[in-house]
Amino acid sequence: MPIKAPPFQVRQLRRSGRNVQEAAPGRRQAAYTRVGSAVRASTTGHGFHLVGTLRAAADRGARIENGCVKFQPEDVRGAVRRGKESNLIVFVVDASGSMAARDRLSAVTGAVHALLGDAYQRRDRVAVISVRGSQPELLLPPTSSIDIAHRRLNQVKTGGRTPLPEGLQLAHEVIEREHRREPGRRAIMVVLSDGRATGKSGVQHLRQVADTIARRGLTAAVVIDCENTARIKLGLAKELAHNLGAPCVEVAELNADAVTGIISAF
After folding, report:
1. d(C-alpha 171, C-alpha 36), whole Å
2. CA-to-CA distance for 189 and 13, rounded, in angstroms?
3. Which residues form a coiled coil (predicted)?
């Protein structure tokens, strides 16, 4: 049974990841898009809004002459439309360790397949970053192809150190690049980690990177706490979530359904 973030946390996510630009059309979250239902007239809207144009002409003092209204260029109004936006979902998964890392990757792989299996309707794009060894790896560049995802995520290595700051930095670079290419697509960064940074740059660098991502404001974020509950809890995942301005979510069982359930709360 998936565990979802509480409603107040969901609202926080939507505020932190909101773009001021018009959103890319999709089917996940309500937003202003190029297609959808017309909600009002605007000089910067799309197409031709007849009622809004008539009202603008009337306000200017235009009259009906011989059954016609003579419009001026400044009278013309387009439609502001409200539809559904699509998203860029970037997974940052701690692949250090052995068995636990494989469980995390299995959950992410299943979630990616579920998300892209519905991509025809939602038009989402998904990326996966593995955090292990000396440097993170972009296992799956942003794509909406389930075939590409299957090939790229079929055999993934685990083990080694945890260069978590570098993993977050790589995710941020991917998000910035995609934002320049398609500014209307909302980004969601999903971090699966216990918050430990055992790479050479350390915890302080992790805090700096997380703070930079939060201040830049290009993405919403959620941290899925993967700390082993059999040990004394250090709360590092919660600290990371706090630095990102994101909620920290714990699940009873980490699997694909749990991950997709959390994302569906956005």
Report:
1. 31
2. 10
3. none
Please answer whether residues 242 and 191 qualify as being in contact, where contact means their C-beta atoms are separated by less than 8 angstroms. no
Going by pLDDT thresholds of 50, 70 and 90, the confidence category of residue 89 is: very high
Give yes or no for residue 189 having a pLDDT over 80: yes
Record the tokens describing residue 197, joined without a space: 């940074």
Q: What gap in Å lies between CA 260 and CA 250, rounded to an integer?
A: 14
Q: Is the pLDDT of residue 169 over 80?
A: yes
Rounded Cα–Cα distance for residues 249 and 6 (Å): 9
Assign residue 207 a region (left: φ > 0; alpha: ψ between -120 and 50; beta: otherwise): alpha
How does DSSP assign 210-236, residue by residue?
Answer: HHHHHHH--EEEEEEE---TTSPP--H
Domains annotated for the chain, with CATH where assigned, are: 7-24+86-263 (3.40.50.410), 32-83 (no CATH)
Could you tell me which residues come within 8 angstroms of residue 115 by beta carbon, excluding any fewer than 6 positions away?
89, 122, 124, 126, 260, 263
- How high is the pLDDT of residue 153? 93
Q: Which two tokens stand for residue 244?
A: 């990102």
